[in-house]
Specification:
122 residues; alpha+beta; four-stranded mixed β-sheet
């Protein structure tokens, strides 16, 4: 599944004449921690798991960005929402990006039901 997320993001990037991205387990771990924090709190927020800059500092990446979402049950729905949102779109189209990690966590007690996070980096 993880490689499938990367291939779908890569298809969007290729359509915009940018490099493909490949799955990265360390980025997925950061994304998973964020998706879990959002699911536990019931909040859709970049800061609920701690400041993004601190969460990715240990990875020593020169550039990294995060997309989050909630309420979409499938990755294609989530990706479409990100593509249509200017800030999320800019992250998907980050010049020089080479790696990506995507995670989702369910919470049936939340009205959102599904929480998503993506971390993309050079």
């Amino acid at each position: 599944m993880a490689a499938d997320y990367a291939s779908q993001i890569s298809a969007f990037r290729r359509a915009h004449k940018l490099s493909v991205v490949t799955y990265d387990g360390r980025l997925e771990a950061v994304a998973l921690a964020q998706a879990r924090a959002m699911s536990t709190s019931g909040k859709v927020s970049h800061d609920v798991g701690g400041p993004f800059s601190l969460r990715v500092a240990k990875l020593r990446k020169s550039r990294a960005a995060e997309n989050i979402a909630a309420g979409f049950l499938t990755f294609p729905e989530t990706l479409k929402q990100w593509e249509e949102s200017p800030g999320h779109r800019a992250n998907l189209l980050m010049p020089g990006a080479r790696k990506v990690g995507v995670a989702s966590v369910t919470n049936p007690k939340s009205p959102y039901r599904m929480f998503w996070a993506m971390v993309i980096s050079d």
